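User: structure tokens for this one?
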Amino acid sequence: MRISLTCMFLLVAGSLMAQNLTGIWRGKRTQGPQGCFPEYSLELHITYSNAQSFMGNAYSFVDEKQFTKINFTGRYNQQTKRMVISEGSVLEYHVPPNCIPCIKTYQLNWSQQGMEESLQGDWSGHEMGNNSGCPPGKVSLTRVTNPTFPVDVFQNDTLAALQKNMRLQPREKELVQTVIFDSPELKIDVYDNAEIDDDTVSVFLNNTLLLYKKRLTDKPLTLTLTAFPNTDYELMMYAENLGRIPPNTSLLVITAGKKRYEMHLSSSEEKSAVVRFRYQPGSP
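Assistant:
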């Protein structure tokens, strides 16, 4: 009996751990009478998730020129497969003059049939800038591989505030390597490449600051990333100083699944080393 219960626990735990919401979800959002449009396309970019919570950006759009972009946070119950998504700030909007963006709350259920994952449920909300209710509606989404809109890189509030006040010197980008990964789970380690001489760097991913004025040593500076499929990423090493022995040199180690890639980077006051990569499912 103990063996059976243990096996059952491992199967359940394994299925919960395998549940990863990070990625792109796209489909339709309907709206009741008096809404601006009876139906919209809806694309959710979940850029960060753990076992119980997640965050990202929501795009409601009629076409790629008429859209709203709103950030959101969410809660997910692994047992019931239910989630609640709460939109926050309107980051960008391009809508007809008679339309007002809605700040929405979604109540959705996750399910899977074969290889297709879906989110189904309802939404309600209020108009941006006031508490007037928006006509509610239904939501139907599936997980897809290619985004309609560019994918943002997750950045915490502290780094966002630091980047806002940064004054980067214009420097040439030097491409060191382009890599195609077959795994979305990436671990990025940055070391000093040679003698430890107080090299200091800031690291950007798709122009988003992820490490700020960090000293390179023989201990790694580590970033983890769940890469979106078929999305281009550019990692840039910006030298904050050149240390005692110019130029600023570093060893970049990327672990993708069971594969490991090592790259030697060199940055100076004239150029920044760049590595480009993408996760391409099924790639050799």
